[in-house]
Every structure is written in structure tokens, then in C-alpha cells.
């Protein structure tokens, strides 16, 4: 059978202490980076960051192969600015306010 692992990471950015790089290396070291394991990641993960990480680390490539990424949708992802108070307020600030 499959072992299903759900991971909730807070830090996905690039760098030496990247949690995803550390996780991929640990999964490989403990034999959890292949058949028999099904990985799902939930976070604000950006696919372009994951792609960059996979270019430089074969353990990341191996871990991502067949895994799933579950993204959180904010209200303004599926509602218009008229329906979403935050998005409407943000856009009404104007460009000068957001540059400050």
C-alpha cells in the first residue's frame, strides 16, 4: 500500500536553509523519496520556485515526481473587487499608497 504524507511548509524561498530542500534531502536519506510514498504539499508554494529548486537538487526532482500541491485560495482569487472587501479597499488606495 501507499503511505500518504501531507506537508505544511511555511518557508519555500530559495537559500541554504530552504525547508523544502531539507525535506527532500531527508526523504531521500530515509528512503521515503520513491515508490510506496505519496506526498502532498499545502502552502503558498509558488510553482516557479519549486521548478528552480528541482533544477539544482535531484532529490527535489524525485520528491516532486508524482506529488501533489494543494494551494489556498484567497477570497479575491474567485470573487470580484465589488464582492471582496479587502480587494476593493486595496485597489481604492491607488498606486501612490501601495508604493509607500
Which descriptors would you attach to this protein?
100 residues, alpha/beta, three-stranded parallel sheet, 6 helices, 3 strands, elongated
Structure report:
The mean pLDDT is 79. It is elongated and about 50 Å long. It has helices spanning 19-29, 47-56, 58-64, 75-78, 85-92, 94-99; strands at 3-8, 37-43, 68-71. Strands 1-2-3 form a three-stranded parallel β-sheet, with no helix packed on it. It has 100 residues and is of the alpha/beta class. The chain is built from six helices and three strands, in the order βαβααβααα. Helix 1 packs across helix 3 (58-64).
**N-end to C-end Cα span:** 54 Å
**Arithmetic mean pLDDT:** 79
SSE pattern: EHEHHEHHH
Biggest sheet: strand arrangement: 1-2-3
Q: Structural class of the secondary structure composition?
A: alpha/beta
What composes the largest sheet? 3 strands, parallel
Judging from the principal axes of the Cα atoms, what is the shape?
Answer: elongated
Q: Radius of gyration, Cα only, in angstroms? A: 18 Å
What is the β-strand count?
Answer: 3
Share in helix: 40-55%
Strand fraction: 15-25%
Low-confidence stretches: none
Amino acid at each position: 500500500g501507499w503511505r500518504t504524507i501531507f506537508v505544511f511548509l511555511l518557508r519555500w524561498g530559495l537559500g541554504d536553509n530552504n525547508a523544502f530542500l531539507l525535506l527532500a534531502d531527508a526523504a531521500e536519506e530515509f528512503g521515503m523519496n520513491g515508490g510506496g510514498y505519496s506526498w502532498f504539499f499545502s502552502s503558498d508554494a509558488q510553482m516557479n520556485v519549486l521548478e528552480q529548486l528541482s533544477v539544482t537538487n535531484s532529490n527535489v526532482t524525485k520528491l516532486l515526481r508524482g506529488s501533489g500541491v494543494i494551494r489556498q485560495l484567497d477570497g479575491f482569487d474567485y470573487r470580484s473587487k465589488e464582492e471582496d472587501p479587502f480587494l476593493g479597499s486595496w485597489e481604492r488606495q491607488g498606486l501612490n499608497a501601495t508604493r509607500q
